[in-house]
Amino acid sequence: MAAVLNNTGRLVQQIPGITGVNPGGIALANIPVNARYHRLLFFSTSGGVASTAKLTSAKLLVNGVNMRDITPGNTINIAKSQGLNPSNGVLPVYFTTPWRNLLAANDSNSWDLAGQSTFSVQIGIDISAVNPTLTGIMEFDYLRNTRDIGGGQQAPFLQPVSQHQFLVNGAAGRNDINYLPFDYPVSRYWLFSGAGNNITLVEIYQDGNKILEGTPAQINEILGEYGILCGGGNPYETAAVFDLDQRWWKSLKAANSFILRVTLAAADTINIIAEYLPGAYLS
Predict the structure, then answer these.
(1) 275 pLDDT tier (thresholds 50, 70, 90)
(2) Are both 11-145 and 162-276 of the same fold?
(3) Under CATH, which architecture does the 162-276 domain have?
(4) Single pTM value for the model
(5) Whose CA is closest to 219, among 250, 249, 262?
(6) 70 with 58: CB under 8 angstroms?
(7) Could you state, in order of their start, the residue ranges of all structural domains in the chain?
(8) How far is CA 231 from the centre of its chain?
(9) CA separation for the pair 87, 94 (Å, rounded)
(10) Please, what CATH class does the domain formed by 11-145 belong to?
(11) If residue 57 lies in a helix (H) or strand (E), which one and from where to where?
(12) 49-71 as b/e, with b when 16 or more CB fall inside 10 Å?
């Protein structure tokens, strides 16, 4: 009798049946559930040229819950800030992120969709796109995210990263932003002003504790030592990164209050790209 092989490696397949790829439309990809996903890569063209410039929005929903709704540009910029440069026309959607590969449990943020009902991706296409195309591949396996609970037993867990963006109209001088969600641990804030280089100081207070205080140049010096690239022509002016060593369990938690204080050289918009760890498929 032939041996039964148990392959535990990752599979790469085409994303099936992407619909709505039209100028001004919303492309829809319904991703099969009951697998564990590590990444999706979307390949976009307009006028026969590989480009993501005509992709206007991206939303990831699990069971109808909005898990991510940052722009394609910010998705790409986060990758660039971690030293990756996607090819023209490629929109990478990472769950198991390449910059966490130094960890033994590098796939702990993968999206384990065993038992979930639906997983869909919605991508907006600009009305000016010319004969747009959108295809994609998905990298996945059939393993589970599990942790040791003693007695030789393993229990499944979820630790997906959610991403949302916020826009604040800031005044010249100090701006206390005290209404950002803090229901879940905060992994990172990526920050930039509308005009660029208007942020002069960043402070963060958690339950009255001063967690961070520094100029972009000072903060970026620390970030750069960990391979996180901000300022100096990189996409973001600066960032507040609470898992500098890539260990997600070091993300910042708050019980009662959370203030992001941004000082501006002149009145400007403050763009905040937030990454959270809800511990489940929760927005």
Answers:
(1) very high
(2) yes
(3) Sandwich (2.60)
(4) 0.94
(5) 262
(6) yes
(7) 11-145, 162-276
(8) 19
(9) 15
(10) mainly beta
(11) strand 55-62
(12) eebbebbbebebbbeeeebbbbe
